[in-house]
Amino acid sequence: MEFRDLKKQYLLYKEEIDSAIENVLMRTDFINGYPVGQLEERLAEYVGTKHCITCANGTDALQLALMTWGIGTGDAVFIPDFTFFSTGEVVPLVGATPIFVDIDADTYNMSPESLENAIRFVTGQTDLQPRVIIAVDLFGQPADYGKIRKIADRYHLFLLEDGAQGFGGSMGDKRACSFGDIATTSFFPAKPLGCYGDGGAIFTNNNEWETLLRSYKVHGKGEDKYDNVRIGMNSRLDTLQAAVLDVKLDIFRKSELNAVNRVALLYTERLRNIVKAPVVLEGYLSSWAQYSILCSNTTERSAIQKALKDKGIPSMVYYQKPLHMQDAFHDVKYIHPEDLPVTTDICQRILSLPMHPYLEVGEIDEISHIIESICSK
Ligand SMILES: *Cc1c(COP(=O)(O)O)cnc(C)c1O
Question: Is any ligand 1 atom within 6 A of the Cβ of residue 83?
């Protein structure tokens, strides 16, 4: 069994994907070919923002957003303690200081209460300037943008939505990647919408930021890329990847987003009385980047992983460590582990199960039975 079965997907849509790739090979417009601009328009329309700017990956997308806002030395950026490393990595990359914020015990997304405490701490007890909140749509469910937007407005902070796992999800009638002042996503193959290599995109309604983002992603270009008006990056989405995504976006919209929600429902029906199943809040839709259960303790989690592995079933721990415990952040100031108890607990018990649109009922049954056999011991 595959954790995310990309081969099954490819074989189902082989003809369209092969032909899209071959068209690029025949045209040889490998950089900035017309599929790139076309995809940007389609993505902006789907997400519901004025602009979409593609780039090389989801990490660059976050960095480009911070560069566009001029974030740097002396600035505080608030990030959830429970997320992929990139969310935190980009903060010191631009010279700013990450401030780790705890998560909600049900959704695993940034806790608005912990966020507000962290902002008050930075304002009252450090000489840092609070500037940006990075909220993550973890495992596919949008963060609590009702409350987080109010906090951003109250303290005059930029809101950056890291929608790398959230693409396709929604809250009310708004889609993920439309909640931040700037939002970003990733097309890494295993993400809800993935390409065949690295890829990313940035979304905003702000015209001025769009212009800056398009400059920063191509060597700080002015009139053209040989007129350089600022220090930028080289971060483009390849035409080949755009062509693949153009095909896959249709499939994602027509069937895959519904299919993963069906799989999640089947899992939850079978697992909700055995472990803590994922909580999707009223009015929210998840795009199920991960289906993550919460075990009673680390020992039970290891036993489940081993029993699954014995049957050839992969499972993953997202995430093993709170961000604040990563060695790379060892010299970051103002880390208060006592303020991050939920993340510390969840890291010891979380477990992600195989999740993709082509998972079959029989496979879900088998996984659930194995988990039940361990947990009822
Ligand atoms: C995957 C991921 C990223 C980074 O995306 P890449 O395309 O791999 O650079 C950033 N944030 C989160 C939450 C992610 O899951």
Answer: yes
- pLDDT for res 225: 81
What does the alpha-carbon distance between residue 376 and residue 316 come to, in Å, rounded to a whole number? 21
Q: How far apart are CA 171 and CA 176, in angstroms?
A: 7
Q: Of 145, 152, 201, 210, give the one whose Cα is nearest residue 175.
A: 145
* DSSP letter assigned to residue 103: B
pLDDT band at 257 (very low <50, low <70, confident <90, very high): very high
Task: Tell me which residue of 84, 80, 97 sits closest to 148, measured CA to CA.
Answer: 80
DSSP code, position 331: T
Cβ of 168 closer than 6 Å to ligand 1, yes or no, is no
Smallest CA-to-CA distance from 76 within 119, 125, 26, 13 is with 119
pLDDT in tens, 167-226: 999 999 999 999 999 999 999 999 999 999 999 999 999 999 999 999 999 999 998 889
The CA distance from 291 to 311, in Å, is 19
Compute the distance from residue 225 Cα to the ligand 1 centre, in Å: 27
> Residue 95 carries which DSSP code?
T
- Ligand 1 mean position, distance from CA 227 (Å): 31
**What rounded mean pLDDT belongs to the chain?**
97
* 114 close to ligand 1 (CB < 6 Angstrom): no
- Phi, psi angle pair for 287, to nearest 5°: -100, 10
Q: How confident is the model at residue 376 (pLDDT cuts 50, 70, 90)?
A: confident
**Helical segments of the chain, H only:** 6-12, 14-27, 34-47, 58-68, 86-93, 112-125, 145-154, 207-216, 239-251, 257-271, 298-310, 341-347, 361-375
Count the neighbouring beta carbons within 10 Å of the beta carbon of residue 340. 24
Instruction: Render pLDDT for 42-66 as a digit per residue (tens, 0 to 9).
Output: 999 999 999 999 999 999 999 999 9
For the cut 80, the answer to whether the pLDDT of residue 377 exceeds it is no
The bridge status of strand 170-171 relative to strand 174-175 is: antiparallel
Average pLDDT over residues 15-39: 98
Q: Residue of the nearest CA to atom 1 in ligand 1?
A: 164
Concatenated DSSP letters of 197-265 = S--EEEEES-HHHHHHHHHHTBTTBSSSTTSB-S---B----HHHHHHHHHHHHHIIIIIHHHHHHHHH
Residue 215 to residues 42, 54, 357: CA-CA distances in angstroms? 21, 12, 37
